[in-house]
Design goal:
single chain; 178 residues; mainly beta; Triple-stranded beta-helix; four-stranded antiparallel sheet; 10 strands; 13% helix; globular; binds zinc ion
Amino acid sequence: MPDYKQLERPNYFFGKLLTADDFQLEQNYQLERSRRNNRFLHGWGIVSGLSVWIENGATVVVSPGLALDCAGNELVLATPERIALTSLTGKHFITIRYQETPVAPQPSTHGEAEFARIREGTSVELTSTNPAEDHRKMGAGSPGCGLCHALCLATISQRGSNWRVTPVKRSILPRNRQ
Ligand SMILES: [Zn+2]
């Protein structure tokens, strides 16, 4: 049974004292709604792009694209990602994970620097295990498990001196499958 969390949003009135908590609550409300819509109206999976291929037998390339993870986060890869295949053998999974990075440090009233912004991004990785291994009956297009974990785009396996790429079909949203 999914956990349907009830939300709270700020109520504004003339003369109200606004603090960082109010702005944070406003932001959290919008983020939670967006993630819940993504999860329960669309489900997790690749929306577009994020193709994987091997370049010159030595580098994995992932094309720009968009996906949704099991927590409803948008995984946006804006530029191609390249990973060198140095000293790797066997079978590996190419994964993409939602990642937030605090940026723009500024002085604060309590003396220590605080980050003024959070940059939303993704991290593309080579792993030896499939992050969605225990997702039986929770395929792409379903709300998934609710956790913010990596999504598998393809597997690569070594065939002699060559690498073979197999896209993970069940990671693609059902309406985009061909
Ligand atoms: Zn999951």
